[in-house]
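Exam revision sheet. Question 4 asks you to relate a sequence to its structure. Input first:
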Amino acid sequence: MDLTIIIPTKNRPQFIKKQLIYYRNQDFKGNILFLDSSSKEIFNKTKKFIFKNNYTKTEIFNIEGTSFDTFKSKASKVSTKYILFSGDDDFYIVKSLIKMIGNLEKSPKIIGITGKAFQIETGGINNDKVLSYNFYNIRPSMHQNPLERLKKITKNYSVVLFSILETQKFLEVVNRIPTSKKMHFTFQTELLPCFLIVLSGRIKKINQLFLFRLVGHSRVQHKTWDQLKKNRFFNNSYLMSINIIINFIRIKKKNTKKIKSDVKDYIDSYFSHSNDIQQKNQYKKIFTKITSRILRLCFGEYFYFKLKNYLYGNDAYQTLKNNSSYKKHFNYLKNNIIKNG
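Answer key, structure tokens:
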């Protein structure tokens, strides 16, 4: 398969092992590139595990930094036509990837392709249980005008990083991203890359389940926009991002002022919308926490989890029920990867 999966990770060797076991089970023929910011001790043990178990077409490098810091230093290692960015807790369905690449090959006017994804909530002492699952929304970006694509993603955000992309286009984006020493984490690791990807070309979405995302373990807690604006480094990165976008789309000088104002408005709208969602989620979390305690006390754990699956995973459940191949991959992930943490 003419595809490289890039997986940045840090101090989570158990997830590297899960990835390797998962993809070997599916007989993945592409390349896997781990960018590991772990300590030397953890890295050496993981590297030994990879060598001992004969994981071919798999490389691992010990590099300190964010996901884009590490990838910039090893971009030359990618020789495949297509590239796929992955967290160490994201698991792709290989059969779906093969179909998607075939679809991408027949669509010369697009630079990437995405599909449907599940978000799986894990829990238990070692996050070894599936508590619930539902769809994780990834949207297409198919407008002909690059600025309209940028406008759409800032008003209704979608992580287009979860797409099979042309390697050349992805490298053009990566080369424009400053290091974490020069740019705030909020822009450097996801926002600016996603903005530049949609400016690079159109992203198609097909009706194909291709990704399982695990949530439940510890994750980075993002600050609100009001908190971020008090940070000088963030404000400098905000202005830098606008200038990078302007230079990236190579607009005519006479249009610069108007376009710059539009881009600023688009980015502001992203943070305004994101801020509103964060505030709503705070109230939702409090309500959910209280409600779940009441349900558990009154009806027990089994009833609570059954109800949760029904309320939040009904469409997802039907998807698995109607497709034996998807269900097979889900059950393998649940019983062999998540359970045996």
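Marking note for examiners. The beta strands are 3-9, 31-36, 58-62, 82-85, 90-92, 112-123, 129-136, 164-166, 203-215.
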